[in-house]
Amino acid sequence: MNCIIKKNILSEGKTKKIYTTNNSLEVLIHHKDCITALNGLKKNFLQDKGVLNNEITTLIFNFLNSCGIKTHFIRKINNREQLCHKVDMIPLEFVIRNIVAGSMSKRLGIKEGINLYNPIFEIFYKNDKLKDPLINDHHAVFLKILSYEELNTIYGITLKINHIIKKYFSDKNIILVDFKIEFGKNHKNEILLSDEISPDTCRFWDKKTMKKLDKDSFRMGLKEEVFDIYMEILKRLNVS
Ligand code: UDP
Prior knowledge:
The chain is α+β, with helices and mostly antiparallel strands.
């Protein structure tokens, strides 16, 4: 295995820092101990949350790689960092919903918890100034972010990811209510699943008790419980 040299900081977001490495096609992603909600309006330090998310997202991306999904993830380097293929991030968030919750429930006035027999896709335009508005395919094409063909490719991959991880979590007594994913393009212009999948980016409910096992605990002000909840998810993922 080649030696990885961490070089310059490439970018820093709310919960992660990205570094260049001695290989121009690879980056190092560092998970910070920071938790945010409501587009960054609510923000807290949470000791070792970065360690938990690094481990959780590693388990999920390893699993998706093994199922043939093309992702940016190469391997975990240490308890906070992972090596990934360098991509240009597509400035869109793709939300997949299996059960009504969160913003969809508020926007459409529908009670949380209703089963969606077919998953619903939503696209949010990543733009802090505009507060990440909900857009549709035509807006994304008009903004020259993606072509219709690329959107179709992403919908196909997203459906597969949903199918794979819904079952993966269900086997661990976790209901995957909804989640957000992001994609990037590598140097060959291939679309790769990027960013992370963790309790920061998913709604998880316990299958038996329906307890919320994700960042909703933080959104609801239960800061003390958040670490234990993320730990519980990690424990369940580690049971095969
Ligand atoms: N989500 C995310 N980042 C965001 C917005 C949403 O990871 O900036 C995730 C969120 O955790 C949930 C799903 O996307 O699993 C759907 O979120 P929703 O649109 O319901 O908005 P929210 O409740 O986060 O305001």
